[in-house]
């Protein structure tokens, strides 16, 4: 009897192929000084995959699992998280930290696992000919810098020569990213650029804002993260700097960045590469299948926030790349290597986003072997303190590819020669 | 007066104001070190915990809501009330006293007679515990702190217009002083007067000083070490609450408040670990020193700009300044000179 039972089970197992989960690890930070930014992103990322599992039965019929590993925004812990989760069949990593990204670029390449660093990380990774496993579509910091300048050109009738622009930046590799681009754009457009570094964590910025008060720049751009954002916006309000002339990068433009300054933050602007708010059909599904079902990653109170939307958007792009990989390779049970192919062949159209319940949520774009950075389109959002909402005031527009392309070629070329990397695309 | 001199004076005055905020943090360290010889690494986290508790009570937040919801499957977050700031302050002081009792009962009572380094390490453990406990109790979101003593009388923020206008009329250029900094300076002065009065003119204050001078002698005249240490940790908790309010009003109440302790270390090195006036004077010197250095050499505004270090000098310069003072006075400006005879 026992023998028959075992034989039957073995036969059953042989007859039906075993489908393992598609694994999308989430290197999150829900603790530490940057938790306020890490939590909504991680919630959005996980909730989207939960939605796919609950509503669609996963991706292509295969369930998705999202193992979470806490990095605390600490580079060493981030690398430990990578090492401890890559053996679980990880398809793609989103480290949400420029420091961790730099450490993982050679590791992911060696392990044949793709990495997506959307709007952060190493900008020159947009050159897929050198960085075969790193993708930073749909935009990078350099697109951000150029997008900010383009917006100022647009609001000044195309001429910003002689205008003073101050860059208040986190004194770290992340904060210094836009400097080269802005210096090149300074030469091209003739504006005056002054640089104001702020040391970590950024709680004390009196000197920088007294300097801004003295020098009276026409515009202030900010590359901040964490407490630096809240303090900068408060200090700007204190010295009565006009908020509509204060523009932050997308990591300085969430609800928690502006709320502590209250009404004085009204009019503050931030760059973006995706849409804001919860006026999209997908959120009704998130509410029904995830939040109301008690399956939300967090308390469900972050849904529709800027960074929640960013996590959701990142998950959507990862899921679409996985679908593309399944189509290319003719199998539902894809590997990390196949996922990389899917990411490189990803095509996001407005029709596709509308079908996903996310019309005009981000720009339409396609990825290629040479271009892992996407189109680099940048929009502008503005904070309304009375309704406590962000709104998109400038649609996703092209950035200065001439300037950025040359910088990407220079930086990636240097990386390729340092690391003896041959062309990936030929 | 030339614009340049007015700017320099503006930087100087703002340095003084920043120094007051640093001194507020340093005071908590001094109180505990003076009474028990413990360097309390957790002082910054106590400021975070105190400010989070204040805002949580003010807004009627349910403590441990995430934990309760995760375990019981409920969706509770708030009680639905909003408590007056002063009442919330009183409740928070109560919580800080309870915390002091718990720290004494569960940590330091078991470590009596241990080496100072053991006590110091215990405070490191306490800091990490409190960090996690604060997050668990009140969650990691950034909370807006609005402290009002009466309707329309809240902790002010923004430029003081009277000073700005007076300077403009006198020198033809404005003068920035933040109202919050002025409030912090007034609160700090009141706090120091209260602490000095308490330690000089009350029975408990004199007992605290006796314990600080000599534990054994204090015990021999019937002073309870347990009680005094709870008292000291409670007072340090109150000072942490004040520091948390002042810093939290500016940046929102969030995890980074725990890092304000880093600003107090050079103040303590300079002012001495055992002197309340030392914490104040040290804070002012560090505040002015780092701001003037940034102005002159960080951004190249002095001496024709011959030295321009490109900014962001404040964090490291504060420590350099403290180390320079230590070369000449190893015990700090107001610290007690320790002479150990064989």
UniProtKB/TrEMBL annotation, chain A:
<feature type="signal peptide">
    <location>
        <begin position="1"/>
        <end position="20"/>
    </location>
</feature>
<feature type="domain" description="Leucine-binding protein">
    <location>
        <begin position="27"/>
        <end position="384"/>
    </location>
</feature>
<dbReference type="InterPro" id="IPR028081">
    <property type="entry name" value="Leu-bd"/>
</dbReference>
<comment type="similarity">
    <text>Belongs to the leucine-binding protein family.</text>
</comment>
<protein>
    <submittedName>
        <fullName>Amino acid/amide ABC transporter substrate-binding protein, HAAT family</fullName>
    </submittedName>
</protein>
<dbReference type="InterPro" id="IPR028082">
    <property type="entry name" value="Peripla_BP_I"/>
</dbReference>
<keyword id="KW-0732">Signal</keyword>
<dbReference type="Pfam" id="PF13458">
    <property type="entry name" value="Peripla_BP_6"/>
</dbReference>
Automatic annotation (TrEMBL), chain B:
<feature type="transmembrane region" description="Helical">
    <location>
        <begin position="267"/>
        <end position="286"/>
    </location>
</feature>
<protein>
    <submittedName>
        <fullName>Amino acid/amide ABC transporter membrane protein 1, HAAT family</fullName>
    </submittedName>
</protein>
<feature type="transmembrane region" description="Helical">
    <location>
        <begin position="223"/>
        <end position="247"/>
    </location>
</feature>
<dbReference type="InterPro" id="IPR001851">
    <property type="entry name" value="ABC_transp_permease"/>
</dbReference>
<dbReference type="GO" id="GO:0006865">
    <property type="term" value="P:amino acid transport"/>
</dbReference>
<feature type="transmembrane region" description="Helical">
    <location>
        <begin position="39"/>
        <end position="59"/>
    </location>
</feature>
<dbReference type="InterPro" id="IPR052157">
    <property type="entry name" value="BCAA_transport_permease"/>
</dbReference>
<keyword id="KW-1133">Transmembrane helix</keyword>
<feature type="transmembrane region" description="Helical">
    <location>
        <begin position="111"/>
        <end position="130"/>
    </location>
</feature>
<dbReference type="Pfam" id="PF02653">
    <property type="entry name" value="BPD_transp_2"/>
</dbReference>
<keyword id="KW-1003">Cell membrane</keyword>
<dbReference type="GO" id="GO:0005886">
    <property type="term" value="C:plasma membrane"/>
</dbReference>
<feature type="transmembrane region" description="Helical">
    <location>
        <begin position="316"/>
        <end position="334"/>
    </location>
</feature>
<keyword id="KW-0813">Transport</keyword>
<keyword id="KW-0472">Membrane</keyword>
<feature type="transmembrane region" description="Helical">
    <location>
        <begin position="182"/>
        <end position="202"/>
    </location>
</feature>
<feature type="transmembrane region" description="Helical">
    <location>
        <begin position="12"/>
        <end position="32"/>
    </location>
</feature>
<comment type="similarity">
    <text>Belongs to the binding-protein-dependent transport system permease family. LivHM subfamily.</text>
</comment>
<keyword id="KW-0812">Transmembrane</keyword>
<keyword id="KW-0029">Amino-acid transport</keyword>
<feature type="transmembrane region" description="Helical">
    <location>
        <begin position="79"/>
        <end position="99"/>
    </location>
</feature>
<dbReference type="GO" id="GO:0022857">
    <property type="term" value="F:transmembrane transporter activity"/>
</dbReference>
């Amino acid at each position: 009897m026992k023998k028959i039972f075992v034989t039957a089970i073995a036969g059953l197992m042989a007859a039906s192929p075993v489908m393992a989960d598609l694994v999308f690890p989430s290197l999150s930070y829900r603790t530490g000084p940057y938790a306020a930014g890490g939590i909504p992103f991680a919630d959005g990322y996980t909730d989207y995959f939960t939605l796919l599992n609950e509503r669609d039965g996963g991706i292509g019929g295969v369930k998705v699992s999202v193992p979470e590993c806490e990095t605390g925004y600490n580079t060493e812990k981030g690398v430990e998280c990578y090492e401890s989760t890559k053996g679980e069949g990880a398809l793609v990593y989103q480290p949400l930290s420029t420091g961790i990204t730099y450490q993982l670029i050679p590791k992911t390449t060696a392990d044949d696992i793709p990495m997506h660093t959307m709007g952060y990380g190493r900008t020159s990774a947009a050159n897929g000919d050198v960085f075969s496993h790193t993708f930073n579509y749909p935009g990078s910091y350099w697109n951000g810098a150029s997008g900010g300048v383009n917006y100022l050109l647009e609001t000044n009738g195309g001429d910003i020569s002689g205008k003073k622009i101050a860059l208040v930046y986190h004194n770290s590799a992340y904060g210094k990213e836009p400097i080269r681009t802005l210096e090149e754009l300074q030469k091209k457009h003739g504006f005056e650029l002054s640089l104001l570094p702020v040391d970590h964590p950024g709680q004390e910025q009196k000197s920088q804002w007294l300097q801004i008060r003295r020098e009276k720049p026409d515009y202030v751009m900010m590359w901040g993260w964490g407490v630096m954002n809240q303090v900068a916006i408060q200090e700007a309000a204190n010295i009565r700097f006009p908020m509509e002339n204060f523009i932050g990068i997308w990591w300085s433009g969430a609800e928690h960045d502006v709320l502590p300054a209250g009404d004085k933050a009204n009019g503050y602007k931030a760059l973006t590469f995706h849409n804001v708010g919860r006026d999209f059909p997908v959120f009704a599904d998130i509410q029904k299948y995830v939040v109301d079902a008690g399956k939300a990653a967090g308390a469900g109170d972050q849904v529709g926030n800027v960074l929640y939307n960013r996590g959701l958007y990142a998950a959507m792009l990862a899921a679409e790349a996985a679908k593309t990989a399944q189509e290319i390779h003719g199998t539902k049970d894809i590997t990390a290597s196949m996922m990389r192919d899917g990411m490189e062949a990803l095509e996001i159209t407005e029709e596709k986003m509308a079908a996903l319940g996310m019309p005009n949520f981000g720009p339409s774009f396609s990825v290629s072997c040479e271009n892992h950075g996407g189109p680099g389109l940048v929009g502008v959002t503005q904070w309304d303190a009375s309704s406590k909402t962000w709104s998109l005031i400038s649609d996703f527009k092209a950035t200065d590819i001439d300037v950025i392309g040359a910088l990407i070629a220079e930086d990636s070329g240097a990386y390729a020669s340092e690391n003896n990397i041959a062309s990936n695309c030929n | 007066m030339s614009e340049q001199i007015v700017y320099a004076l503006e930087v100087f005055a703002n340095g003084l104001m920043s120094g007051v905020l640093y001194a507020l943090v340093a005071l908590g360290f001094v109180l505990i070190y003076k009474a028990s010889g413990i360097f309390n690494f957790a002082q910054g986290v106590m400021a975070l915990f105190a400010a989070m508790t204040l805002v949580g009570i003010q807004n009627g937040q349910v403590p441990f809501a995430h934990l309760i919801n995760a375990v019981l499957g409920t969706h509770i977050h708030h009680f639905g009330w909003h408590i007056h700031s002063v009442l919330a302050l009183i409740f928070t002081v109560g919580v800080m006293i309870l915390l002091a009792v718990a720290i004494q009962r569960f940590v330091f009572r078991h470590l009596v007679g241990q080496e100072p380094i053991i006590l110091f390490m215990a405070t490191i453990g306490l800091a990490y515990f409190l960090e996690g406990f604060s997050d668990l109790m009140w969650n990691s979101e950034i909370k807006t702190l609005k402290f009002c003593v009466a309707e329309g009388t809240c902790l002010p923020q923004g430029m003081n217009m009277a000073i700005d206008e007076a300077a403009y009329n006198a020198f033809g250029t404005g003068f920035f002083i933040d109202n919050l900094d002025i409030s912090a300076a007034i609160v700090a002065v009141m706090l120091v007067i209260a602490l000095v009065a308490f330690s000089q003119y009350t029975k408990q204050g004199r007992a605290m000083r006796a314990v600080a001078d000599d534990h054994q002698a204090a015990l021999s005249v019937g002073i309870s070490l347990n009680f005094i240490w709870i008292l000291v940790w409670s007072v340090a908790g109150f000072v942490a609450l004040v520091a948390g309010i002042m810093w939290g009003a500016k940046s929102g109440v969030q995890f980074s408040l725990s890092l304000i302790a880093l600003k107090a270390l050079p103040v303590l090195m300079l002012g001495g670990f055992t002197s309340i006036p030392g914490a104040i004077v040290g804070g002012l010197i560090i505040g002015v020193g780092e701001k003037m250095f940034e102005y002159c050499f960080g951004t190249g505004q002095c001496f024709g700009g011959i030295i321009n270090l490109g900014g962001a000098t404040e964090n490291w310069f504060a420590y350099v300044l403290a180390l320079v003072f230590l070369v000449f006075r190893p015990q700090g400006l107001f610290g007690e000179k320790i002479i150990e005879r064989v």
